Amino acid sequence: MKFQLHHFSLLWICFFCSKEKDRLNLWSYFLSPFSPQHPSCLFFQYNTQLGPPYHILVDTNFINFSIKAKLDLVQSMMDCLYAKCIPCITDCVMAEIEKLGQKYRVALRIAKDPRFDRLPCTHKGTYADDCLVQRVTQHKCYIVATVDRDLKRRIRKIPGVPIMYLSNHRYNIERMPDDYGAPRF
User: Pfam families recorded for this chain (predicted)?
Assistant: First the structure.
């Protein structure tokens, strides 16, 4: 653990405290900010809530890049994970696709596919990246499908959330256990 200079001085004071109660208070001060609480579904950084059928949160740019690569979303997801996949799309992502206009009408038609689960949003604002990060933080049962570097960087900080991305005209997945059928290249 990385302590700042004043933490070391407080640590020495903690060892030389005469009262046991003061010593325990100082130790709780040290341990509380440095011991993050992880959900019980995580086991050695792998999420035990993930399993077939996989629920995959789809981002706007993932749909657009899939269209450019001429890939069928649902079939390509199943080819990647070797199991049934249920693509999920939030209201914020749908609003983002609708805002893109007539140029992205194919992406909008794909997003309105009945095979997609529509997830309602209860928060204010329509920024899709914040919506996806918030949903994945609350519920660890999703895989996030995105090509956006900033969103990938934010999601990598959340333990136990795999990321699906597009490379070489096929879908790949990172941070997924071998037991769950993740292909290794």
Answer: Fcf1 (PF04900)
SS (H, E, C) 36-70: CCCCCCEECCEECCCCCCEEEEECHHHHHHHHHCC
Q: Is the pTM of this model over 0.85?
A: no
Query: Is the sign of the CA dihedral 173, 74, 60, 128 positive or negative?
Result: negative
Residue 143 parent element (H or E): strand 142-145
d(CA 180, CA 43): 14
Bridge-based pairing state of the strands 142-145 and 117-119:
unpaired
Per-residue pLDDT of the chain (185 residues; tens, 9 = 90+): 444 445 555 555 555 555 555 555 555 555 555 545 555 555 445 566 678 889 999 999 999 999 999 999 999 999 998 899 999 999 999 999 999 989 999 999 999 999 999 999 888 877 889 999 999 998 888 999 999 999 999 998 888 889 999 999 999 988 765 545 455 55
* Rounded distance between C-alpha atoms, residue 160 and residue 171, angstroms: 19
The DSSP secondary-structure symbol of 101 reads -
Q: DSSP character for 102?
A: G
Note if the bond before 53 is cis, omega within 30 degrees: yes
